[in-house]
Write a structure and sequence with these properties.
Helix content: 25-40%
CATH architecture of the largest domain: 2-Layer Sandwich
CATH topology of the largest domain: Glucose Oxidase, domain 3
Distance between the termini: 26 Å
Number of helices: 14
Number of domains: 2
CATH class of the largest domain: Alpha Beta
Number of strands: 22
Largest sheet: 7 strands, mixed
Shape: globular
Radius of gyration: 24 Å
CATH superfamily of the largest domain: Glucose Oxidase, domain 3
Length: 584
């Protein structure tokens, strides 16, 4: 794409992910005269590597990031959850308490699952539904969970306070059309406005300053193609630059702009403009594990669709085109529990978890330790090699790991820029304990489900020969009241090793440009201004000062709505009107 003739805008967004789309779309709708530019690299499948780490048994893993218009919202699993209200109160930032944010949570969504829920919204641009197909094995998961696991059932555990309860799992899917409801539509629904421009294939290198005032950005074009023009271009912003490139991209842009820790910048030959050692620190994520099981031949799963079986795909597409239904409008995840251990479970988790429980969870009854759910099908690296049959996966991810990482720019040996990424996964010894417990509890739930036909042994812990925990196929479930598997110390070691071998990201990276006081290694203030400069804000998941107990799309949308409110107030724009028109 050649550089358009317009080279000065009112507002420039460095990044076109979920939060940027919300802010740009809202502002354009409220004031169509604003000249707004969104620059998005749009490298699909972009990943961040980190170096081998002893706590993950020497593995070098990858963390995917969205890198498309709408960011992760355009490529995620579509799972709708919301953090408890106390998460935002814990941020302890003026204007960002739950009471300030709940109206915005309601404003952004159309909650099609149930009517008249006081904390949900019913007129927003983001559609929430149960999807286009309900899978029976998810009902089995809930039945065993509410009987064997002895937890209650509720229709809505995303009301900002309820947890430790089995419930349906809603999706970011329009219930009428069966289509994904992503943040990109905040921008696409303003396509009639020529003052809102979206330039894709553009990677922002740095922010341009004049006397510490942000006045524009420098960018390159389409770095994926080796024949593309690699020259630097500049575009100016008269009012504001908003860095919105995510937990990896935003700190990198700031550091390339001279904002960050002196040691990091010096190693990269960058002159320091502002000393902000918190840039790139405070990296957080959730720790996830997906464990596969065999399912009865007669059960309905997503496997045939995900394998691309031609007749199944054609039939599902035909039905979806008729009425928005079929497996096409499902992600295979219809049920969940935001789990907290009861007394017996807490005792079984052992002494090593007690300090973390008492310090963080014990007096916060709305905070879950992990989410347990069932995926009705196999999704993973073995999809092309597994026998074509039915599978399900036990999915669990911990919501508030104590470990913290960092991400900074660095120069590689070839002189090109890379990322010095330390995720910190399982650095804190308390973090692996909920995962080890979840494996055992989820296995007991699955063993009792009518559709259970055993474990896929190569994808479970390698238990010692002769152990009662050895995995394999089964002819059917055990009785609901059957005794639990007894695990030996050697078995526990196998589970621990398994998690260090297989734990992965949930694609919920956040925190690297934290909204905290500068003295506490913060990067932005309560109005998202970067400390030490003017006319520069950060708006994306990188500003979250603490972790959130949710799939983070809901929080990215919320940050976008709040940022739009902040910016409109500073520009004197009336933000009280309904400003996003529903679109398909």
């Amino acid at each position: 794409m050649s550089l358009p003739s317009l080279t000065e805008f009112d507002i420039i967004f460095a990044g076109g992910g979920a939060t940027a789309c919300v802010v740009a779309g809202r502002l354009a709708a409220c004031d169509p005269s604003l000249k707004i530019l969104v620059l998005e690299a749009e490298y699909h499948g972009h990943i961040q590597y980190w170096d081998p780490t002893p706590r993950l048994n020497g593995r070098a893993l990858i963390v995917p990031s969205g890198h498309s218009v709408g960011g992760g919202s355009s490529v995620n699993f579509g799972a709708y959850t919301r953090a408890p209200a106390s998460d935002f109160d814990d941020w302890a930032v003026d204007g960002w308490k739950s009471g300030d944010l709940i109206p915005l949570m309601k404003k952004l969504e159309t909650y099609e699952v149930q009517p008249n829920r006081p904390t949900h919204g019913y007129n927003g641009p983001i559609k929430i539904s149960s999807g286009g197909y309900k899978l029976g094995i998810c009902n089995e998961f809930v039945h065993v969970g509410t009987t064997y696991h002895k937890r209650p059932y509720a229709e809505d555990t995303d009301n900002l306070e309820t947890c430790n309860t089995y419930s349906p799992w809603a999706k970011y899917i329009d219930g009428a059309t069966g289509r994904r409801s992503d943040a990109a539509h905040y921008v696409y629904n303003q396509a009639h406005n020529p003052n809102l421009q979206l330039w894709v294939g553009k990677r922002v290198k740095r922010v341009i300053f004049e006397d510490k005032r942000a006045v524009g950005v420098e960018f390159t074009s389409d770095l994926v193609s080796p024949d593309a023009d690699q020259s630097l271009n500049t575009v100016r912003a008269s009012k504001l630059v908003v860095v919105s490139a995510g937990a990896f991209g935003s700190p990198a842009i700031l550091e390339r702009s001279g904002i960050g820790a002196e040691a990091v910048l010096r190693r990269c030959g960058i002159e320091q403009l502002v000393n902000l050692p918190g840039v790139g620190e405070n990296y957080k994520d959730h720790n996830a594990v997906l464990v596969p099981y065999f399912v009865a031949d007669g059960a309905v799963t997503m496997d045939s669709l995900w394998r691309g079986e031609e007749s199944v795909v054609k039939g599902a597409l035909a039905q979806w085109n008729r009425n928005g239904r079929s497996l096409i409008a499902s992600n295979g995840v219809d049920a969940k529990i935001k789990w907290r251990p009861d007394g017996d479970e807490l005792k079984a988790m052992g002494l090593a978890f007690q300090p973390r429980w008492k310090e963080f969870f014990q007096d916060r009854a709305d905070k879950a330790v992990a989410i347990f759910s069932l995926i009705a099908g196999y999704v993973g690296p073995l999809m092309g090699t597994l026998p074509p049959r039915n599978y399900m996966m036990a999915a669990y991810f911990s919501l508030y790991p104590a470990s913290v990482g960092s991400v900074h720019i660095k120069l590689e040996e070839n002189g090109k820029e890379g990322l010095d990424f330390t995720p910190g996964f399982l650095d804190d010894p308390s973090d692996i304990i909920p995962l080890n417990f979840a494996y055992k509890k989820m296995r007991e739930i699955y063993r009792r489900m009518p559709s259970y036909r055993g474990e896929l042994p190569d994808c479970h812990p390698s238990f010692p020969e002769g152990s009662a925990a050895v995995c394999g196929e089964a002819s059917g479930p055990v009785d609901l009241n059957a005794p639990d598997i007894i695990y030996t110390a050697e078995d526990d070691e196998a589970i621990d090793k398994y998690h260090r071998d297989y734990v992965q990201t949930t694609w919920h990276s956040l925190g690297t440009c934290a909204m905290k006081p500068e003295a506490e290694r913060g990067v932005v203030d309560a109005r998202l201004n970067v400390y030490g400069v003017s006319n520069l804000k950060v708006a994306d998941m990188s500003i979250a000062p603490k972790n959130v107990g949710t799939n983070t799309y809901s929080t990215a949308l919320l940050i976008g709505e709040k940022a739009a409110m902040i910016i409109s107030a500073e520009l004197g724009i009336d933000f009280t009107v309904q400003s996003i028109v529903d679109g398909k």
